[in-house]
Amino acid sequence: MKLPIKSRPRKRLKILFLDKETHYSGSDERLNIILSPSYYWFKKETLPVKYVSQAQTLAPSQFDSIVPEGSYKYAVIKKDDLFWLFAYDEARIAEKLKELGIKPSQIEAFYLAQNEFDNLNVPLAISSNRVLVHNEGVLSVMPRAYVDATHSLDAALDQLTLSKHKVSLNLFQNSVLDEKWIYRFSAISIVFIVLYLTSYLLFKSDLKELRTEQYALTQQYELPETSFQLKSLMRSLTSKEDRQIALRQHLKKLFSLRLSSGDYVKKFEFNAKGAQYEIVLSDIKHAESIKKWLQKEFTIKSAKVVDKTFYIGVRL
Amino acid sequence: MNKINPLYILGFFVLVLILTVIQNYSIQNKIAEAAQLVSTIKQNGQEISTLKKHWKNSKQTVQHIEALLNQNPFKSKVIKKERKASLYKIALHNLDAPLLDRFLGKILNEYVVLKKLTIDRASSTDISVTLEIEL
């Protein structure tokens, strides 16, 4: 079973006819704008091309000698074998809209009066002294002194169904940069963004590899997790090595003790704190020279001679 | 019809570009730091590994001492080999001065943590030596 689709009727937007003498006192409502002939230049031409896009490239040359010097945009509408060519100055239109207090965000689309009022057969009063007239296929605005109008524009706009031919306009007239340059710079920025993002992703993968290597090395060498623990371990091991090397050097010195003939070491005790000799002397006078020799390198802890045995202790 | 000012669009892209440049710079710094850290870990790791191998390897210490004590002429002089927790005690006797010198020369050239050394001379051919080694 098909469910009926109920679509809400689309609210008709207000249509504003934008002429030099248009006044606007509306709110921030959304608008469709029809450009008055006073805001564009119009030509009907038979061109040696088939498509609108091709005609668009030829449009500027068609207005070369007609329009005053300035910066124009061009619009083309194909009507049977004819091309309708339009030239309009965005800056002038933007200026008028600004003057009327209409924001760019309010505008839904722009239309051209020539196209929207193509079938106009009676003059329309657009203000107290200006009239919209269709004459020999060309729509124009004339002073009311020449043509009398019995119909008002507002009533015509209420009945009007807009065509599909919208006109593209850039209302943001930037004084710093031309629109073309803005898009060029944006494109350059995008290229650099892509390049930098690619390089960022490559760097990120490199960083991940380095982090993995860090972890693997920590596991391989069984290193502690924190740098504090690592330093502590390193300190403990190096101090152990330094202590053992120092002990061996002290032992080397202590073993190099020269004794007089007849004297000999009966007992020798050594540990990390110091050493203790028990030296049997042939003459107790030798004790003094032994003490002197040891004193040069070590601190004497104790020294005594008992029955020709010299007991001497040194501190390392 | 343009609803957004193109200048804002350019501003947005420039902002994104600046952010990507900053991110790039920041990640490059992180990579340099991480590479430095890897090199430090490698260096420290090798150093710690060597130190542990030398001074914190009880199995290796015992193996080296046993190998020395099993060599001639020390094998017959050993009177004590005792392992207590983290201490290894050995004692040799009946050594003369050159043999004692040779024994001490050998053991002190090993990576062993010497705690205590006692030399006792009964006569010129009967010198005993006792060593306490930390494991």
Mind explaining what this structure looks like?
The complex is a heterodimer of chains A (316) and B (135). The longest helix of chain A has 42 residues, at 179-220. Chain A contains 7 helices and 14 strands. The mean pLDDT of chain A is 89. Chain A is of the alpha+beta class and 316 residues long. Chain A has 3 domains: 14-173, no CATH class; 174-223; 252-315, General secretion pathway protein M, EpsM (Gyrase A, domain 2, 2-Layer Sandwich), CATH 3.30.1360.100. Chain A has helices spanning 52-62, 90-100, 113-116, 153-159, 179-220, 227-255, 286-297; strands spanning 14-18, 31-35, 40-45, 73-79, 82-88, 107-112, 124-125, 130-135, 138-143, 151-152, 264-271, 274-280, 299-306, 309-315. Chain B is of the alpha+beta class and 135 residues long. Chain B has 2 domains: 1-56; 58-134, 2-Layer Sandwich (Alpha-Beta Plaits). Helix content of chain B is 55%, strand content 27%. Chain B contains 3 helices and 4 strands; from the N terminus they run ααββαββ. Chain B has helices spanning 6-55, 58-69, 97-108, and strands at residues 78-84, 87-95, 113-123, 126-134. A 4-stranded antiparallel β-sheet of chain B has the order 1-2-4-3, with helices on one face. The longest helix of chain B is centred in the N-terminal third of the chain and has 50 residues, at 6-55. At the A-B interface, β6, α5, α6 and β11 of A face α1 and β3 of B. β11 (264-271) of chain A pairs antiparallel with β3 (113-123) of chain B.
Secondary structure elements and pairings:
The complex is a heterodimer of chains A (316) and B (135).
Chain A lengths: L13 E5 L12 E5 L4 E6 L6 H11 L10 E7 L2 E7 L1 H11 L6 E6 H4 L7 E2 L4 E6 L2 E6 L7 E2 H7 L19 H42 L6 H29 L8 E8 L2 E7 L5 H12 L1 E8 L2 E7 L1
Parallel strand pairs in A: 1-2, 2-6, 7-10
Antiparallel strand pairs in A: 3-5, 4-5, 7-8, 8-9, 11-12, 12-14, 13-14
Chain B lengths: L5 H50 L2 H12 L8 E7 L2 E9 L1 H12 L4 E11 L2 E9 L1
Antiparallel strand pairs in B: 1-2, 2-4, 3-4
